[in-house]
Design goal:
With 231 residues, this protein is α/β, with parallel strands linked by helices. The chain is built from 6 helices and 13 strands. The protein has 2 domains: 179 residues, Ribonuclease E inhibitor RraA/RraA-like (Glucose Oxidase, domain 1, 3-Layer(bba) Sandwich), CATH 3.50.30.40; 37 residues, no CATH class.
């Protein structure tokens, strides 16, 4: 078991907030990452009603447009790699075709198998299908929906990937929902709840005043002052 600066309970706690809120908290905890570490293209969620997913990244590269040109990682090794142990996992797959999403890795079978292995969901720039038959509770945040799996296959696993600008490596903590995904530095996991609470107090001062009758630009100045004084 790897020694990590957080527990499963710490990861589970982050599921109560959406991904934009986690990004806000990271701006306080690790301000040097304010403009990096998150997806920057529109994404499609398999089910917007599902809560956020949080887990350790299990990374891989895939292709689908053409059949494999050489040896590829055995599918059983991928399943062994992604299976959750003491902490939940999230599959993070980068489609490296010149047209990502040409063929879907994810559908009824893969979502069911991964869900049974304890995988919380997937983040990918590739595509997915079988919208009405995906494993219940298994979230996919992907680049597009498509009908065929074409020649989809794994090219490499346990490697650095880039999904819509989010550079991610094996074992990185990922937080994702229908807004997109973000890498949470390990050292930031335990610090985020306090940071999120601070931001909520600051925002409440502004929102309460903006929602009150007679709101003006002058009152907004006062709200900003009050928000800045909350610490």
């Amino acid at each position: 078991m790897t020694d990590r600066p957080f527990t499963r309970a710490d990861l589970d706690a982050l599921r109560q907030w959406d991904t934009p809120t986690i990004c806000n908290g990271l701006e306080l905890v690790v301000p040097e990452r304010r403009a990096i570490g998150f997806t920057v293209e529109p994404m499609v969620a398999a089910d917007r009603r599902l809560p956020p997913i949080v887990g350790l990244a299990r990374t891989g590269l895939i292709r689908a447009k053409e059949a494999p040109r050489g040896a590829i990682p055995p599918r059983e090794e991928w399943y062994e790699y992604v299976a959750a142990g003491d902490l939940p996992t999230i599959a993070v797959l980068q489609d490296i075709d010149d047209r990502p999403g040409y063929g879907a890795f994810w559908g009824e079978v893969q979502s069911t198998v991964h869900h049974a292995l304890g995988v919380a969901g997937c983040v990918t720039n590739g595509s997915f299908r079988d919208l009405d038959a995906l494993a219940p509770g298994f979230q996919i945040v992907g680049g597009r929906v498509g009908p065929s799996h074409a020649h989809v296959h794994m090219v490499q696993m346990r490697c650095m990937v880039n999904v819509f600008g989010m550079v991610c490596d094996h074992d990185d903590v990922i937080h994702a929902d229908y807004h997109g995904a973000v890498v949470v530095p390990a050292a930031a996991v335990k610090k985020l709840p306090e940071a999120v609470a601070l931001i909520a107090r600051r925002e409440k001062a502004i929102l309460d005043m903006a929602r009150a009758p007679g709101f003006t630009a002058t009152k907004m100045r006062e709200a900003l002052k009050r928000a800045g004084e909350i610490h």
